[in-house]
Input
Amino acid sequence: MGKYGIIIKGKDRHIQIDSFNTVMNCIRKQTVVMKGGIVSGNQGYYTELPITPHLSTKLFAVSPNNVFVKVIGGAIKGSDKNIQISQPYNDSSGSVDVFEFGDFPNNIFKEKYGVVIKNSSTKQTVYNSNWGVLKIVGYFIASWKEDIDYQLPNIKDLAFVFGGGMGGIWEDGFEGAWMDTFIKRVGNTLQVRYKEAVLWSTGSANRDLSRFPSTCLIIDVSDIKKVL
Output
């Protein structure tokens, strides 16, 4: 940790800027139109981000208002691999904002005045009040289960970094499905649901299920959405 720094205190939390670690800030916001329904392969709709993620991106946060989604695929540093967003089988349509957070400087607010903090040794800027700093307002870790309804802070614009949950295959001798975990915000509730992603006909009976704890960071993107 750096020798000097600044601590900004709020009513019920504080953020420490230690002059050594660069704060994570919003590099880009992309909006993805999810068309819902069923696509080839008898699966739920899926699509790639319009723009390949920035090389400095460390986290993807999604804002799924009234549509179930899951971030799938993976961007590999130094390659053109993209991130995909998927929906459950035959789900409704809607749009989703995807926020990329990382350590790439991005002066999104473009204010004339502000606060800049640099590391005294490297001269690297570790904080700039013009950056859209990652603002975590909550989190949860839940043991595996099919349905979770998590009550959110009363904040209009939130995004979520979600991982884990349940996934697997079930076949009953007539029909088979790949099941996965999706999230959707409805009002001040984040719904986590175990839903069908792909369906097929089969003569086999089989179940193969993986269970992991559900983890979620809840991020306030209100200020970021005003300018991006």
Observations:
- The longest helix spans residues 222-227.
- Helices lie at 222-227.
- DSSP finds one helix and 18 strands in the chain.
- The first strand starts at residue 6 and ends at 9.
